[in-house]
Automatic annotation (TrEMBL):
Protein name stated in the entry: Methyltransferase type 11
Source species, domain of life: Archaea
Classification lineage: Archaea, Methanobacteriati, Methanobacteriota, Stenosarchaea group, Halobacteria
Pfam families: Methyltransf_11
A GO BP entry: methylation
Keyword Transferase: yes
TM region positions: none
Naturally occurring in which organism (per UniProt): Natrinema saccharevitans
Keywords: Methyltransferase, Transferase
Gene3D superfamilies named among the record's database cross-references: Vaccinia Virus protein VP39
Location of the Methyltransferase type domain: 68-167
Molecular functions per Gene Ontology: S-adenosylmethionine-dependent methyltransferase activity
Amino acid sequence: MSSRRLPRAIAALLGVVLLAGLGYALRWRSNPSPCPYAQRHAIDLPRPVVTRSRLCDVLEPRPGERLLEVGPGTGYYTGTVARAVEPSGTVHAVDVQSEMVEHLRTRTRADGDSNVEPVRGDARALPYPDDAFDAAYLVLVLGEIPDQERTLDELERVLEPGGRLVVGESLPDPHFVGFERLRRRVERRGLTFDGRVGTRAGYFVRFDASAAERPPR
């Protein structure tokens, strides 16, 4: 192959790869599902917008609180939040994949985070009573759930009056959930918008639960 044709061939190959990746992302978005355990290493890659410290700034975890994390995966955020609620607080980390739950259990034991309770469960039917948590959070997870509306109902249900809900989203996640639409959906459930950090392409947003504004269940 001539030297002139080589760059064209490389460009064509890159184009095919990009189109294939775009097609995969579109199919994944239209068929929501969690990140497979086989791809778990991608979960621990740095997240420059939705960072651990920024999550804590927005969530404001306090010692002694009972918190819920939905979709912890391998535990990118779990240990940081768990240490913020020590010594008597707990983090219940609910994931739909058994492999992720076991991975998280092993990781938290190795890190000495004894106040983390990994739980196999479905966000659409959380295994907890009403008003069970001081706060709940999920990062890069909501768009992976087939029934987001049911999940938001469940999160509202398990938060105690005055509780806090924090949602984190960031591109290029194929399941990215835009801020404006998310805010409308959460506020319909009686939670109050309490602030956002970041940009349209990546953000943390916090909502507060108020007994006076809750719709009847």
